[in-house]
Amino acid sequence: MFGLNIFNKKSVTGKPRPVDLAQRAGSFTFVTKREKTGSALKNDDAMLSFMGDYGYYERITLYRFIKDNIPVINGAIWTWTRLCSSPLEFYIPENESKKDLKLLNDSVSALNERLASDDYRKSGGLERLSDLFFNSLFTDGAFAGEIEFGRGKGITRFLPSDVRRLSFEKDGAPSSWKIFRETEDGKSLLDPAAFIYIPLDDDAVDPRGKSILQSVGFVSRMEQKLLYDMQQTQEKAGYNRMHVKIKKPERRMGESEDNFLDRANRYFDDTVTLFSGIKPADSVVTWDDIEIETIAPKSGNTSASNSWYLSHRSLVEDICAGVHLDPFMLGYSYGNTRSWARFKFELVLRQVVSVQKPAVRFFEWLVNTHLAKSGINLKAAVRFNNDRINGALARYESEREACGRIIELYNAGLIDKDEARNRIFRIESEN
């Protein structure tokens, strides 16, 4: 029970000026101060201005914030990172021998131990670097880092860089750029031989890349605002309000207007004080001139909850469209059929292979640089083993059908035994 005693002016004698009784009832309105998004974040004036730029440092900081605090955004980055970060395989594309393959595997193992030199982690290396690569690629729109060479042979370690601290300048040619690292002491030019920068969906105007969260920032803000409104509405429905009605006292015979208002105000204030100290287990005892009512929503009305559900679902689907994932891949069950879900998942797997191409280029550069600095004359190639995500059952069924057709051709006498054996071996090597 809240009451408000209003005396907005003073009389000539300095005493509070009595107000009309109708002005005494009121409610408190809590006003939340809103600030511009990114106003408290760092503003780096040294950054090069690109077309359509609205604060690169603040934008990437905002992406990281919503990834860490909004479940649907966090689930999207998590899913994309784990789908793309499949096991790495290193091989020699031409003239591969057992000796060269063993030398390559030993070199990669040595590099893996150097990259996982943290004594407390007990793991890491190339696998952890793969997770960092895709997480930064999807969140920030780019991945960057540099290698360090020690006194020994090969690469000592790899240091990922914060892409917010990088700036770009034209280097003569339209598509050529110089990359600088911004620090408190100024900016320094990065060595292309030791530094690598891989963007996602870059273009000729802006080489920095684009995060997959770039198109969902505003929609995610609406989704969180809707959840906040739902919480406020459910809280009001769960904690019903009391409306205490006080009958206006009668004016006594011969009583002046000021005395009457003072007596009525004291009676109102005493009643407010009474109800403000009531505990949940206390009872209320008043005169019969006070009436107490409960303000609550009507029972059995589910239209409001259905409206909340449909509104939230539309926002979630909009966010899923922006991050290129279907709702069922983020834990939302909206009645998708099994065939439709499998079709959408196959589309995602094709996108995974496309996104893994820049990662292949990064790991090939890393491993081949290590081999060259170690004095090993080998050229390695990298591929991702996507067998786990493509489905073992589907591969088994496809292989069984293909082998069955070859057996039918052999039984019909259309191919000989050696040809059938070679075709079956070819199918097994491809799968």
Summarize the structure.
The protein has 431 residues and is of the alpha+beta class.
Description of the structure:
With about 425 residues, this protein is an alpha+beta fold. The chain has 11 helices and 10 strands. The strands form 4 sheets. A 3-stranded antiparallel beta sheet has the order 3-2-7. The chain has a 3-stranded antiparallel beta sheet with strand order 4-5-6, with no helix packed on it. A hairpin with a 5-residue loop joins strand 2 and strand 3. Helix 2 packs across helix 4 (about 125-140) and helix 5 (about 215-240) packs antiparallel against helix 7. About 15% of the residues are buried.
Keywords:
431 residues, alpha+beta, 10 strands, elongated, disordered N terminus
Question: What is the strand arrangement across the widest sheet?
Answer: 3-2-7
Query: What percentage of amino acids are in beta strands?
Result: 5-15%
Radius of gyration from the CA trace? Answer: 35 Å
Low-confidence stretches: 1-13, 21-48
Distance between the termini: 73 Å
Largest sheet: 3 strands, antiparallel
Please bin the fraction of helical residues.
40-55%
What is the fold's blueprint, element by element?
Layout: H1 56-69, H2 71-84, E1 88-91, H3 98-115, H4 126-140, E2 142-149, E3 155-160, E4 166-171, E5 173-183, E6 186-189, E7 195-199, H5 217-238, E8 241-246, H6 257-276, E9 290-295, H7 303-322, H8 338-373, E10 381-384, H9 387-390, H10 392-411, H11 417-430
Antiparallel strand pairs: 1-10, 2-3, 2-7, 4-5, 5-6, 8-9
Helix pairs in contact: 1-2, 2-4, 5-7, 10-11
